[in-house]
Amino acid sequence: MIEKMMKTQLFAWVDRRTGAEAIIKSQLTEYPAPKNLNYMWNFGSLALLMLVLQIVTGIFLVMYYKPSAEATFGGFTVAFDSVERIMRDVNFGWLIRYMHAVGASMFFLVVYLHMGRGFYYGSFKEPRELLWIIGVVILLIMQGAAFFGYLLPWGQMSFWGATVITNLFGAIPVLGEYVTQILVGGFAIGDPTLNRFFSLHYLFPLLLVAIVGGHVHALHVVHSNNPEGIDLHKPEQMIPFHPYYTIKDAFGVAFFLTIYAYIVFFNPQFAGYFIEVDNYVPANNLSTPAHIAPVWYLTPWYTILRSFESKLIGVLAMGGSLAILFLLPFLCRSAVRSARYRPVYRIMVIMFFVDVIVLGYCGHSAPTPTLKIVGQLSTAYYFLFFAALPFLPKFEKTKPVPEGI
Amino acid sequence: MTDQANQSRRNFLYVAAGGLGAVAAGATVVPFIGSMLPAADTLAASKTEFNVSTVEAGQLVTIQWQGKPVFVLNRTAELLKQVDGHDDILKDAESKAIDEVQAEWMDTPEKRKFRSIKPEYLIVVASCTHLGCIPLFKPTPGRKDWGNSVPEDWYGGWHCPCHGSLYDLSARVAKGSPAPTNLHVMKYEYKSDTTVVIG
Amino acid sequence: MKTTNTLMAILAIAVMGFSTSAMASGGGAALKHAEIDVTNQEQLRRGLTVFVDVCMGCHSAKYMTYRGLMAYPELALTREEVDDLRGDKSLMSGMISDMSPEDATESYGKSPPDLSLIVPGRRGGADYIYSLMVGFEHDPDGKIPDGNYNPFYPGGRIAMPDPLSWLDHDAADTAELEQQAHDVSAFLAFIGDPHQNERRAIGCWVVGFLVLLTLVLWRLKVEVWKDVKH
User: Fold this and answer.
1) Angle between the A369-388 and A299-306 helix axes, to the nearest 10 degrees?
2) Residue A336: which of A383, A273, A289, A402 has the closest Cα?
3) Residue of B22, B18, A2, A261 whose CA lies nearest to C216
4) Which domain holds residue C138?
5) Any alpha helices (H) in A69-190, and if so which ranges?
6) Which of A328, B20, C186, C190 could form an S-S bond across to C36 if both were Cys, CB 3.0 to 4.6 Å?
7) Domain count, chain A
């Protein structure tokens, strides 16, 4: 179809003015991709899909959402009322809102799997260091956007989640109090906070679009890694992105959308993981819910925070656990990329995945002495994993890497 | 299997996938555009009740209906007389361009002239049919009270300040006005002797 | 391929672990099961009656408008029935109790929560509501006065007085009171998300369609990838 389209006169007219043909050829129809990519390579396109879906659903929600913490009858607020109006009175409002709320969780799920792929197959290693670093920036902006967005319904979880996270910044010596006030716009979460979070929740996705553009550009300069983790140069090892990967990605998208639609239509709260029970209760600044925890995609970092007695060290550790992702390409010094040929790294990285899941579980559960110790051990392993990477080549005996595929 | 059979299967799958994809894209548009239509509560608020006896003789009040301004004018016998005698300069003196909703009661020349269920109470949408400004009420005939804004043989009615459209006291538009049609008469009915339900 | 499978397995286990742990959360005594069917018009209307006669003495449901009682096909009341219920309140008004939150606070010590979102907003949902309705008991320790002890309420001491007069009720009335509790739980479950039946109905079509699309794209992928020699 693309070939046909490129033969039309209209296309020729556009091409003379934009160089569209050269772009399509170099980036799509003749863009070389390794022919041995497995389904773990589908998550990039899925993440892009989720970004688009979140932006589109968000734009339509904003047409009815009102960012105001002004009280209304029955202990509710204008913001909470407007969300319920979307759920009840706006045509298909329930669908768009559930798509957005479930979409946030699915976006993180896809991005975490995408990152896990990078960890396992060494996609962050030379020459893709910058590609990885841009990816980490995307993750941080996503987490920010999710955090800002979670305040908007002005439920109990919105309110107390925002209270806890903004107070984290209070731990910063000297400046902490001011940083908190700049975030909150007052002395506690209130109407000014809601308005600025709304503004930022609209801004951050636009930043994401720009940075995702950079991420894709960087990818198209250094090209995809592959499960073997070896450099591919021979033409017979490559296939054009279109139609092979466009169709494979389309299949992945349809498969993913089936699961997504199932959750949206049949289980949008996902047992309180995607939309928490307490967020159906309007925010009350005089009563904290019995058990508060961030949404699941932020819980691993929350456990790291909770693992330290000192608030300052906890905050630093949490910041460090994210910041250390930037350093991953430089900490990992092995010449071999893929975990397939690195027996020790392979065990370490699988343990790392399990570790992050355990951290997430601990962060989501009510704190108990056992879980606290489990959380502390998991936090220790999280950092140990990164700390051990530079020394790994000294004793890891890698398997011979294949010449080709 | 031959290559040809393979090729035709492949073509079929391409067409099937493309067709289903197009259906999916089309179906996705429905809820999004649908969400921009008036919401259920907005639709339900689309009727307004009004007690016309609160409008004194000769008085014009502007009320709201569906967020739009609506004129309710209590025409005295004198004002009703001013409606006559200038049919030749009106674009649609007999109110031929009427919607189905009024057709059931706007059935006599009398009703078409007064454009109201009860002659004394004229109820029309107060938006100039040109570009939606609210016309100014200038009921007395001649230029005495209104200066040059109205023609010398002014028969009383409305003058739109935006682009000079003129309407008579039955809100019928004069020839030469940029407005294409008379002010709209919306659907309304008398629930009791004095209470109208608009919408 | 083996490694991918391992990864997938780990993730699958993780996701399952997550969802089971959610079930376990929530406190108090083990909840009783509410027999509700949010597509059953009879039950929802009976629940509405209980809601109006009993709950609305103190509680409101501000997001459930009188207009909605007519508009939602699951309830589909007539204009006359709604006019009887609403009195002089507007059709656009939510179902607001005649007792003001201030008066309620004075009488019971706290303001009764709005019930529009009580089912999605409580762990256990409809089961929790049902259990509360039929959970009033005498405090075995004798500390909490009768009518305020309910083992299903976190902490056991509930400010809401026994709404169905369950405590010390006549044994002959048990079935009827239980039915009222089921019905009102169903009604509250419905108004917590009034588009839920429509959502599930549309969902069947959407998911079915996507399964078909996935299958076609899968065959197409297999077909096109035959070109690639491994």
Assistant:
1) 100
2) A402
3) B18
4) 28-203
5) 78-88, 93-121, 129-151, 156-168, 176-184
6) C186
7) 2
Strand arrangement, sheet containing B188-190: B48-51, B195-198, B188-190
Q: Can you tell me the ipTM of this complex?
A: 0.94
Contacting residues of C for A281, CB less than 8 Å apart: 113, 117, 121
Best residue in A76, A239, A265 for a mutation probing chain C (most C CBs within 10 Å): A265
N-to-C CA span, chain C: 14
Q: Is C15 a residue whose pLDDT tops 60?
A: no
Structural domain range at position B25 = 3-37
SS3 A396: coil
> What is the spatial distance between Cα A219 and Cα B41, in angstroms, rounded to a whole number?
49
Identify which of C13, C55, C20, C7 has the alpha carbon closest to the alpha carbon of residue C187. C55
Structure tokens at A115: 């990152």
| B30 and B91 share one domain | no
- The more confident residue out of B113 and A190 is A190
pTM, entire model: 0.89
Over residues A150-194, the pLDDT tens digits come to 999 999 999 999 998 898 888 888 898 899 999 999 989 999 999
Residues B162 and B141 in one domain: yes
Nearest chain B alpha carbon to C67: B44
Assess if residue A12 is contained within a domain. no
Token pair for residue A380? 């220790």
pLDDT tens for residues A220-246? 999 999 999 999 988 889 999 999 999
Residue C62 · residue A74 · CB < 8 Å: yes
Residue-wise pLDDT for B33-66, tens only, equals: 999 999 998 888 778 888 999 999 889 999 988 8
Chain B residues with CB-CB distance to C91 below 8 A: 44
Distances, alpha carbon A25 to alpha carbons A19, A30, A44, A308, C90, in Å: 10, 5, 21, 53, 64
Among this protein's residues, is B184 annotated catalytic? Answer: no
Amino acid at B192: S
